[in-house]
Inverse folding.
């Protein structure tokens, strides 16, 4: 039985970790870390867990937890994990960090986009970017995994095979993304009130969203060139789900079958990536509650562009599900253990 | 491996049966019966099942299916199951009927409220009303189980212990129920369009809803008297969930603890019934996707009434989940097999 | 031109007052009072008012405002208006108070249910309860109007004619109410976040909601007896709208036509009350954005109860619209001036 | 008093026309044309109009109507208006056609994208494209106005000044659009059921949506070159609202102020176009129920692209509101008569 601790267990991503790990046959949660609800029963914070989780919330003392847990998930604000990390912790436990602290290899880029000083840059090199379908081998050996962002997971996997195979002009890549509101977290902000989000859609963080450099770095590795993109997130009146619509000019004269075979080559053995049939567009509802990424595409001969679309559940494949997928890899378990969640519809 | 067939697999309750059974380790679905989508790939009707279910939809030939299946779930319009039933079918397979055809023991009551002739009244006597927490013993021995309605499951279980123990005046019982829209089914009707339901709430079937006699009959057995109630359903802009708010005058001078101990006596060993802590009101979101019934109550000394509240997911405990719970009982499996679904939040 | 000031202009009810008064041909808003947004442009708080309202938010100095305004609307937390009120203010301006401070004639009842001391009980006697359809004459002469609560407006008007005519047993009256989320205000609370309210329904304030004594008092005047009721509010995932479902035993043997004629006697000349046709249930969407109350009812001969249903837009007839209706009466304007708002559908 | 007839009065756009015209002081609706609800009371189809509209639905006999009405609005399926049009009708009344029949000047383009034969191509030349802000002068003199599509209105106005002034490379223009569900109409289709749309987002009509050539034609006139774009619509779980996010490469080195001054030059005297302050992104909720177009933009120096954003209410500025705006122009009324609708929030 793997002993798991969660720092930040009372945010939405933390709550989803609890839901998934509570159904994982090889894991026992030993620490429900929280800053706001210390000593409160976890099931009083998330009543869906009533009679399922009996424990109380603990603090966020990661040092103490490192002595007890085989793995620690940190679902914490940017900067927290970096500020706490040290060799002692890493020598005693494995870390899956759901924050952005170790995702970006160039610390200057991190500090510029996040506006904070990185407190433990010495571990950035070691940290493995935990996009399982891309870095599976490295994740298996990692002590410290940087779990990808929600937008980035969906954005990268949707374009990855075409970037890698040189089919698209990376300078033309535009990603228009739409997210449910759980991505904004459980903090009490006026902008996230029901009445402000409901019956409304808006763009935000235009040309400045922090997931931009993360996407650029990873797609840059794939394309083997420097990538600069436009990424525009939108807030959608729904709880869960991310849809990305990506536009890029084609570098070659390709047919539907050509592109489909590229996608299949990368993804047909991937349990959690489903390349849809011709003409089918992904919908967030079809992956809700699951770890799937659904991908579709359309070639437009009029403009010589390809429109790629991807859908995930932002709290599962975009956060907690992928974190568990990483944990499974790190501990030599079947990658899908605890993750065979069938999408809930409707 | 239990071979299961579903007649009506492409409605919302049928789809939920597929979701649950696909995760049930002792069941194999061998027949996806449909009237509208024969020969179409099931995953093209419900794309959440893409790469999970590869089969095509079959017709609704229950006779043929009876020769192949160990159990048949009928999630069909009222009257269908009754019109097809015969001794031969029942001698070859077990039936869990999700329609109302065998729920009501008095065929005249059925025919009056449903406005159709019952085609096989000879099986009504044998049929077991599949409210597992109440009729567990009989369900285990049944060939034919009448799976309770969604409103009725929630309405009955919320009041059952107090009715049984004579704490409430049954003549004063009023049930005000609220349901998500999946209860209205997947038929294409203007009244169920997104724009008609969204940002709207209404009562419907006032003093005439078909679940009324079903609730009255079952609570009548519990109270050992004839029960006539007001039951008012409302349509709420959400996909899933039923909340009932029940009002009744208390027949005895009781405290919170008195009532709580009655509820606990009936439910503390019930895996799927959660009696909430004092002062906590059930919310549909806390049971979404799960087979739980959450129950709370409040005594009002000003009026000498008790307000009982119950919440379920209408497609799970109110339909497919309870059907699987019944199947588990009928086949001697652990009652919760395949049903340890943790509520999804948010 | 009537000069109007609003204290609490940046809450949802205050915002709706601005929307309605901005379209009122005889009113000029001279003061957008706020506590949180002083000196901020009003249109930066509510961007729907961009290029419509150019003013900045002022403070909540009601004394100063009283010297400038012909009428002051106070859309403020309970206790504020009472704490500021004095004879000087009332001698210089008219007040429409949207809070509960002057709604309840018995100050002890107010202090018990609201848990605060009333700071100016000397004005309670004078204050007119501003339910226009009931107290029109008194409102016309008032200096200080207590604008009714949202739930209460809908609850009272739905039952009023039957209470007044002695058709229903007031001891049996149960009001099950459902409200959109704007009723919870614009304060940043976790419980009102999009993800907490969406796809969810719950009861709250069971047997303890503050609108209970207000309903009891007013229906008590109508029935000419002391009235004690059960009132249960529910939170519904929609922005606007209140639906009440009211249950009461009939004291006489009446037909549909009998009851309809009673309703018509009271309401057929009321511009803002629409008694629907037989068999039609009110829906909140049909009154959204308007000052209408839609009412329907159904007699249930099985239980000898009548089920009455009413629907309003909580921000219009339940708050700002009724406040303007009161203002129109106080200033001798046509009662519907600025209120001929056609419901928006869908 | 202008006598107006509506053919297609029972669709969502038709219903919105009724709402707006019922509040227009110079218009009387004399004909509520419908195909599905002939002889039914209009208020029984749209109960928000109870006690506001007493008339019954008529048929869609446009010839007869032409003899009675000063103006006819046709809110009908593609092809209907073209199939009925003749010189006699146009000689007796004015027409505002809300369908696509006369929007596209090249009949071959129309027939290709819409897949139907145009039955009266002889009137295409005469028809004025009713984008008031662009073609105001021609609209004033028109007998036949082609009211623009919802997506197109928003898409064109958002980019128009920059296209006209040559600031953007039209070959790089990509329009990612998001629409509420009322745009899909009131037809009873499974895909538009509440449970299918709610908690879901998807793209549709990728690289093939019919509004594409309409946008291309109009922006082509503005840019004075042939324009070929990518246009991708998405279905969003909300009733009303369209948001467009448009991407284009800048042809010149411009500052925020440069671009803002271009927008202002075109729109500062336009009552219904609001160019938002720097850094503010449009949100559909801020224009709901109104005839406004809200526009914002951001220059991204990293990619040398500009991101333009526009928001409208699809049923108002995207359909009925613009139709009334056109009617006002055609009859010499103030352009905003009946259209001073303040956005409803929340």
């Amino acid at each position: 039985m793997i002993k798991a601790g969660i720092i930040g267990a009372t945010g939405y991503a933390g709550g989803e970790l609890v839901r998934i790990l509570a159904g994982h046959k090889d894991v026992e949660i030993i620490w429900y870390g929280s800053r706001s609800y210390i000593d409160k029963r976890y099931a009083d914070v998330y009543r869906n867990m009533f009679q399922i989780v009996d424990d109380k919330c603990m603090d966020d003392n990661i040092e103490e937890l490192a002595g007890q847990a085989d793995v620690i998930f940190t679902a914490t604000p940017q900067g927290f994990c970096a500020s706490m990390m040290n060799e002692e912790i890493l020598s005693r436990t494995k870390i899956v960090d759901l924050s952005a602290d170790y995702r970006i290899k160039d610390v200057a880029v991190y500090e510029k986009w996040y506006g904070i000083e990185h407190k433990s840059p010495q571990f950035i090199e070691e940290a493995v970017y935990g996009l399982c379908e891309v870095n599976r081998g490295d994740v298996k050996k990692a002590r410290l995994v940087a779990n990808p962002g929600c937008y980035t997971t969906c954005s990268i996997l949707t374009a990855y095979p075409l970037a890698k195979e040189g089919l698209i002009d990376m300078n033309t890549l535009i990603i228009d993304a739409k997210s449910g509101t759980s991505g904004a977290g459980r903090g009490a902000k006026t902008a996230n009130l029901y009445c402000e989000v409901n019956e409304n859609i808006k763009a935000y963080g235009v040309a400045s969203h922090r997931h931009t450099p993360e996407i650029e770095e990873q797609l840059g590795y794939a394309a083997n060139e420097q990538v600069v993109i436009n990424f525009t997130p939108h807030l959608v009146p729904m709880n869960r789900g991310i849809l990305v619509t990506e536009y890029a000019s084609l570098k070659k004269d390709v047919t539907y079958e050509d592109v489909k075979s590229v996608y299949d080559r990368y993804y047909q053995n991937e349990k959690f990536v489903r390349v849809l049939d011709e003409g089918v567009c992904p919908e967030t509802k079809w992956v809700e509650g699951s770890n799937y990424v659904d991908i579709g595409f359309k070639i437009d001969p009029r403009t010589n562009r390809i429109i790629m679309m991807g859908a995930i559940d932002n709290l599962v494949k975009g956060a907690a599900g992928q974190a568990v997928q990483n944990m499974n890899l790190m501990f030599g378990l079947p990658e899908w253990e605890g993750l065979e969640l069938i999408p809930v519809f409707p």
In short: The longest strand of chain D covers residues 242-249. Residues 150-164 of chain D form the longest helix (15 residues). Chain D touches chain A through 45 residues (CB under 8 Å). The domain at 2-126 of chain D is CATH 3.40.50.720 (Rossmann fold).
